[in-house]
Specification:
The protein is mostly helical and about 140 residues long. It is about 75% helix and about 0% strand.
Length: about 140
């Protein structure tokens, strides 16, 4: 069962690395990068901290989310356990923010599905995906 969670963790980490890279550069897909730019203009308008006076510039917002997703995805896939757990938490928060944003924008449930599935998989990894700590031989 541990092998299944390892494969899931690596694939999910690589997925986040890829989605972060698409947000950062148009080298992978110019059309998708252009679409993300347009979407982040909408996302910035409903940013959760807007009520506190913090409204991010859409381009910078996309860049920050892209870098966080890419780095956290890489660490989730290949980092040591402590960094995997921290990355899992950070990516979970980003997915909650994505779901919130899409719901506030009144997007269809089909648009919320990818973020919801990713959040569910991250939570599954958080609950079941890590080996229990080893007990010392001499207790």
């Amino acid at each position: 069962m541990a092998a299944v969670f390892t494969v899931l963790r690596v694939l999910l980490g690589l997925f986040f690395l890829l989605t972060g890279a698409v947000k950062l550069s148009d080298l992978l897909s110019a059309d998708l990068h252009r679409h993300m730019k347009a979407e982040f203009i909408r996302f910035a308008e409903v940013f959760p901290l807007k009520d506190f006076g913090f409204v991010p510039e859409p381009g910078r917002y996309q860049e920050v989310v892209g870098w966080v997703e890419a780095v956290a995805g890489l660490l989730l896939a290949f980092g040591p356990q402590l960094l995997r757990e921290i990355s899992n938490f950070i990516l979970s928060v980003i997915m909650m923010g994505a779901i919130y944003t899409l719901l506030v924008l009144r997007e269809s449930l089909a648009m919320c599905a990818p973020a919801t599935i990713c959040l569910g998989l991250l939570l599954l990894l958080n609950i079941r995906g890590y080996a229990p700590p080893t007990k010392p031989k001499f207790e």
